[in-house]
Design a protein that fits this description.
Cofactor: pyridoxal 5'-phosphate
CATH superfamily of the largest domain: Type I PLP-dependent aspartate aminotransferase-like (Major domain)
GO biological process, one term: L-phenylalanine catabolic process
Catalytic activity: L-tyrosine + 2-oxoglutarate = 3-(4-hydroxyphenyl)pyruvate + L-glutamate
Modified residues (N6-(pyridoxal phosphate)lysine): 249
Structural class: alpha/beta
Oligomer: single chain
Bound molecules: pyridoxal-5'-phosphate
Enzyme class: transferase
Strand content: 5-15%
CATH architecture of the largest domain: 3-Layer(aba) Sandwich
Number of strands: 14
């Protein structure tokens, strides 16, 4: 015997969280509907996955560690939701240095760095509060926060100062509802690496306004020769910092989904609730991949320095290659990165009167030259495009060549001259 139904028809709709969650990159890229030039092989300088082209692969020590982990049959079961103790210990050791001693109880293993960021944002910010994120910046912070009804405010980075934070702007954005500041160093999309003094200034502001920091340091140690990576936690004694990192970028294994949070709270100012909250939130996905946890001690202890050095040297030589070709192109201004895997290029749209925006520029570049770069708008920053520099060097060279031909064809000066003289001249100005 069934009771009369309180519903008269099917009406299954998405929740508010589902509706409010969206990735700005997706919506911008999906609006680019043009087809690449069928006569030219597509070169995607848009994909932030270093494994795409097979030129960058993890070292054999790392692969063997995972093989051993599977073969041992020890990691088939559930782990504690924050991770196996020996895996957390390995992360604590890996993340300790002469300035910071990390304890395994301060480590929470997550499903990639994105999940680490998700937990940190969720534990610190309530609906109606706000978090501050960099502009230009990685879009996932917005995706994660807005889904939860947390407002996102941006603070500016200054291209003319190597993408340092505009500290006055940062201060201005902080209000009584600011739950956290997200700092991304080294930066995606800028490839910038903060100087020690700059980090100290940032920490002063956080301390003055009593705002905790979420440090997205997924590119930690990925800095070019002559630069130094300073973690936020290594320079702070008072600001509570939740540092997020993982294997993804430095070990070239994004698909393995292994990241972590390290709780740095030397003055014990975080309520016990925060630690407890992170633990509870980690139970939503019942912990991270146990096979990779089983391999973590070997991965973090046995990866030879030469592997890291080789990757850095490749990225450094690629960025010099791209910089040196693009700096010669009229209307474009590349900004040489100091680390990570990206380079931002300023597009002087006044030089290209046919295009009204960076989106139109990259769209036509794809249509005519089959080269695809992400428009700056994906990172909240107009008149730029982001190049990924992990692609093989011959492809990168070819891409730069095509970008040059494209720019010369559409530059108002060259376009005029080429019409008059009947040939495309390589006019530089
Ligand atoms: C790639 C990336 C991440 C996410 O890394 P996963 O471990 O794949 O989740 C986080 N932050 C930034 C800035 C990134 O570029």
């Amino acid at each position: 015997m069934l009771m009369p139904s309180f519903r008269k028809h099917w009406n299954v709709c998405a929740s508010d969280i589902a509706r409010k969650t969206h990735n700005p990159i997706r919506s911008i890229v999906e609006n680019i509907v043009v087809e690449p030039n069928p006569n030219k092989k597509v070169i995607a300088l848009s994909i932030g996955d270093p494994t795409t082209f097979g030129n960058l692969i993890p070292p054999k020590e790392v692969v063997e560690a995972v093989q051993d982990s599977v073969a041992s049959q020890l990691y088939n079961g559930y782990a504690p939701s924050t991770g196996h103790e020996m895996a957390r210990e390995a992360v604590a050791e890996y993340s300790s240095n002469e300035f910071v001693k990390v304890n395994s109880k301060d480590v929470i293993l997550c499903s990639g760095c994105s999940c680490a960021l998700d937990l940190c944002i969720t534990v610190l910010a309530r609906e109606g509060q706000n978090i501050l994120i960099p502009r230009p910046g990685f879009s996932i912070y917005r995706t994660l926060a807005e889904g939860l009804g947390i407002t996102v405010k941006t603070y500016n980075l200054c291209p003319e100062l190597g993408w340092e934070i505009d500290l006055d702007d940062l201060k201005e954005q902080i209000d009584e509802s600011t739950a956290a500041i997200i700092i991304n160093n080294p930066s995606n999309p800028c490839g910038s690496v903060f100087r020690r003094d700059h980090i100290l200034d940032i920490l002063d502001i956080a301390a003055h306004y009593y705002v905790p920091i979420i440090a997205d340091e997924i590119y930690e140690h990925m800095v070019f020769p002559g630069r130094t990576f300073h973690s936020l936690a290594s320079l702070s004694t008072e600001v509570p910092i939740l540092s997020c990192s993982g294997l993804t970028k430095r070990f070239l294994v994004p698909g393995w989904r292994m990241g972590w949070i390290i709780i740095h709270d030397r003055q014990n100012v975080l309520e016990a609730e925060i630690r407890k909250g992170l633990q509870c939130l980690s139970q939503r996905i019942i912990g991270s991949n146990t096979i990779i946890q089983g391999a973590l001690p070997k991965i973090l202890r046995n990866t030879p320095q030469k592997f890291f050095d080789d990757v850095i040297n490749t990225l450094y030589s690629h960025s010099k290659l791209a910089y040196n070709s693009i700096i010669k192109i009229p209307g474009l201004k590349p900004i040489m990165p100091d680390g990570a895997m990206y380079m931002m290029v300023y597009i002087d749209l006044q030089c290209f009167p046919e295009f009204n925006s960076d989106v139109e520029f990259v769209q036509r570049l794809l249509m005519e030259e089959s080269v695809f770069c992400l428009p700056g708008q994906c990172f909240g920053c107009h008149s730029y495009m982001r190049l990924v520099i992990t692609v093989p060097s011959d492809m990168l060279e070819e891409a730069c060549q095509r970008i040059q031909e494209f720019c010369e064809r559409h530059h108002y000066k060259t376009a005029k001259i080429s019409r008059k003289n009947g040939f495309v001249n390589k006019i530089l100005y």
